[in-house]
């Protein structure tokens, strides 16, 4: 399972890169707005840290505009992937970009039927937002199961990026199902690593080590 970090914060991205665990980065306009830096400058800085896919969102509302944005991102750095919302002009743009060999990630995905059309359009990635489904009393993880099954049934190349992850169980469930990628916010990455019994055990070992006579 590949691990992307879901943030536009450079320090958080560097930290996971330094751990050797960074397979990619996902951003969205909300995450970028928290960083108080022009978006293009921020994207270039992220691309300096991350060799894998750097997902940056198109904001045009028509297919031609989205295609232009994606072409420009692709020209700036080949590892930029354009995130495109799941709406009609978006799917049209995905098809066009797929023909040009430009990678896309269709975002704001909430149903298996959307996922089917996205794969047929030729997107490289699909981003189902599971936390937001949980928020409205739907089981977000059901969508991951459906997408993984549908894509396997037809050998679609589109990779499932589990997004809108809120806690470690989302990551574990996604791994059990066999999702290709999980994009994880920095605080959830910390929670995946930490265990109180590890901390207690380390302290005890260090305390006991101090009691060993030095030769
Ligand atoms: O990857 C998508 C993610 O950024 C959305 O997360 O928590 O705003 O639903 P959230």
Q: Quick recap of the structure?
A:
By secondary structure, the chain is α/β, with parallel strands linked by helices.
Give an overview of the whole structure.
The protein is α/β, with parallel strands linked by helices. It has one domain: Aldolase class I (TIM Barrel, Alpha-Beta Barrel), CATH 3.20.20.70. Helix content is 53%, strand content 17%. It contains eleven helices and eight strands. An eight-stranded parallel β-barrel has the order 1-2-3-4-5-6-7-8, surrounded by eight helices. Helix 9 links the parallel strand 7 and strand 8. The longest helix has 16 residues. It is globular. The mean pLDDT is 97. The structure holds SN-glycerol-3-phosphate (G3P). The site of SN-glycerol-3-phosphate has 11 residues, from helix 7.
List keywords for this structure.
215 residues; alpha/beta; TIM Barrel; eight-stranded parallel barrel; 8 strands; binds SN-glycerol-3-phosphate
How many distinct folded domains? Answer: 1
Q: Which ligands occur here?
A: SN-glycerol-3-phosphate
Strand content: 15-25%
CATH class: Alpha Beta
Query: Structural class, judged by helices and strands?
Result: alpha/beta
The tally of strands reads: 8
Mean pLDDT, all residues: 97
Label the overall shape. Answer: globular
User: In CATH terms, what is the architecture?
Assistant: Alpha-Beta Barrel
Strand order of the largest sheet: 1-2-3-4-5-6-7-8
User: What count of helical segments does DSSP give?
Assistant: 11
Q: How far apart are the first and last residues' alpha carbons, in Å?
A: 47 Å
Instruction: Report helical residue fraction.
Output: 40-55%
Assign the CATH superfamily.
Aldolase class I
- N to C succession of SSEs: EHEHHEHEHEHEHHEHEHH
- Examine the coordinates and then state which fold CATH places here, giving the name of the CATH topology: TIM Barrel
Low-confidence stretches: none
Tell me the radius of gyration: 20 Å
Major sheet description: 8 strands, parallel, barrel
């Amino acid at each position: 399972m590949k691990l992307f970090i879901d943030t536009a914060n450079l320090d958080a991205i560097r930290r996971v890169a330094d751990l050797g665990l960074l397979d990619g980065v996902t951003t969205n306009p909300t995450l970028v707005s928290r960083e108080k830096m022009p978006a293009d400058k921020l994207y270039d800085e992220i691309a300096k840290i991350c060799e894998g896919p750097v997902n940056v969102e198109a904001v045009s509302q028509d297919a031609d505009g989205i295609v232009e944005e994606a072409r420009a991102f692709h020209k700036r750095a080949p590892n930029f992937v354009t995130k495109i919302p799941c709406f009609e002009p978006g799917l049209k743009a995905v098809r066009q970009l797929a023909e040009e060999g430009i990678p896309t990630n269709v975002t704001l995905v909430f149903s298996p039927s959307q996922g089917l059309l996205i794969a047929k359009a030729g997107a490289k990635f699909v981003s189902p937002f599971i936390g937001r489904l949980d928020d409205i009393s739907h089981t977000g993880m059901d969508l991951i199961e459906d997408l993984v099954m549908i894509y396997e049934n037809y050998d679609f190349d589109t990779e499932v990026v589990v997004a809108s992850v809120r806690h470690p169980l989302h990551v574990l469930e996604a791994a059990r199902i066999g999702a290709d990628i999980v994009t994880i916010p920095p605080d959830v990455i910390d929670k995946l690593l930490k265990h109180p019994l590890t901390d207690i055990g380390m302290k005890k070992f260090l305390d006991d080590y101090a009691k060993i006579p030095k030769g």
